[in-house]
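Private note to self, pasted from the team thread so I don't lose it. Backbone tokens:
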């Protein structure tokens, strides 16, 4: 730990030098931007676009609210790309010339900006957050909303106090880094004088004045006629985006034991391209989501949209918020690291109940996560119905 503290300033200097070189390297091509929508309300969303949600929220606003047009901007990532209207690689995102053109494009054409994960929509300058650009956007007359996704504001120390299986109970370099990040970005979103949103209800513990903006999935994209529970064994899937934050070591231990006894067929996959996921999910009976953090995520909604049974640890406060906000009991089978093996063994023993559970999840997603409710949440800020 002490060696890491000594090396941190050296690493920071190296990163700063590399950024300086990148910033003043000539651009290979001039920036190209999509047309600004010809609508009364013109929304720009980005630049994190985690799990394609900035894209999904923007399209939902266009589809369900009158007079709204939207453009989604994303910083390019090396793996698992999601759709956007335009994106740039990191070197362009940091370049002064592109940043100047991006500023002209955003401030000259849009009425509203939804900034997700507090990342700079105009490109980073001194820090990797949007704090310095908020006054710029407001002076240009834009209405700005901030949205938190998860690790951007989830304070590890607070999470460790309230969640028994928190991955942050043992301090390490990553936990310390996330603690610093959450304090910095949490101060930005909690100090923002405009609308604030969170993508999962558990984050209301860290951003108490925010509104829950439900994640959006396309139910038709995930629809399948493949039956649930009809095979010789119960097929169980775990596809962690981040094994530590999904509690994958708990899942592996419990499912390997059941697989060794012949109770389930366990499929553990990582790095699957987004376009392949509907086929992967359609081929299983049960999807195991996360068991240490407390929310339910895009993966859970996609699996429910496919009529698969989803099991996860969902914090009681999250279930209660969903109940109050939607009138629905969340149809995610409750399990934690201590009960996971027994819960899945119970599902394997009662195959006849699986289709009904799957259908309940399918109906829940169509009511809560198909974009209509999310558009209603955005409507007051956008000033439309």
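Design output:
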């Amino acid at each position: 730990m002490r060696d890491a503290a000594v090396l941190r300033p050296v690493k920071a200097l190296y990163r700063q030098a590399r950024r300086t070189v990148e910033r003043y390297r000539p651009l290979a091509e001039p920036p190209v931007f999509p047309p600004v929508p010809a609508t009364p309300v013109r929304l720009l969303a980005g630049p994190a676009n985690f799990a394609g949600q900035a894209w999904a929220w923007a399209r939902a606003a266009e589809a369900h609210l009158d007079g709204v047009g939207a453009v989604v901007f994303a910083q390019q990532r090396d793996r698992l790309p999601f759709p956007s209207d335009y994106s740039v690689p990191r070197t362009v995102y940091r370049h002064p010339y592109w940043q100047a053109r991006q500023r002209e494009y955003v401030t000259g054409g849009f009425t509203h900006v939804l900034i997700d994960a507090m990342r700079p929509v105009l490109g980073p300058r001194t820090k990797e957050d949007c704090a310095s650009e908020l006054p710029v956007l407001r002076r240009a007359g834009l209405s700005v909303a901030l949205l938190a996704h998860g690790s951007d504001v989830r304070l590890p120390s607070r999470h460790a106090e309230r969640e028994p299986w928190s991955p942050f109970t043992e301090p390490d370099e990553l936990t310390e880094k996330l603690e610093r990040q959450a304090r910095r970005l949490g101060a930005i979103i909690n100090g923002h004088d405009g609308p604030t949103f969170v993508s999962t209800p558990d984050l209301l513990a860290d951003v108490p004045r925010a509104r829950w903006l439900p994640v959006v999935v396309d139910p038709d994209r995930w629809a399948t006629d493949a039956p649930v529970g009809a095979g010789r064994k119960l097929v169980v899937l775990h596809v962690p985006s981040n094994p530590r934050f999904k509690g994958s070591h708990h899942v592996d231990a419990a499912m390997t034991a059941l697989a060794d006894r012949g109770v389930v067929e366990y499929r553990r996959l990582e790095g699957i391209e987004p376009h392949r996921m509907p086929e992967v999910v359609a081929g299983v009976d049960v999807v195991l989501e996360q068991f240490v953090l407390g929310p339910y995520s895009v993966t859970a909604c996609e699996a429910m949209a496919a009529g698969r049974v989803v099991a996860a640890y969902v914090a009681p406060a999250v279930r209660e918020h969903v109940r109050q906000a939607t009138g629905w009991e969340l149809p995610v089978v409750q399990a934690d690291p201590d009960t996971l093996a027994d819960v899945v063994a119970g599902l394997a023993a009662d195959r006849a109940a699986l289709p009904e559970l799957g259908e309940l999840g399918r109906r829940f997603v169509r009511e809560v996560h198909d974009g209509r409710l999310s558009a209603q949440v955005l409507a007051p800020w956008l000033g439309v119905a």
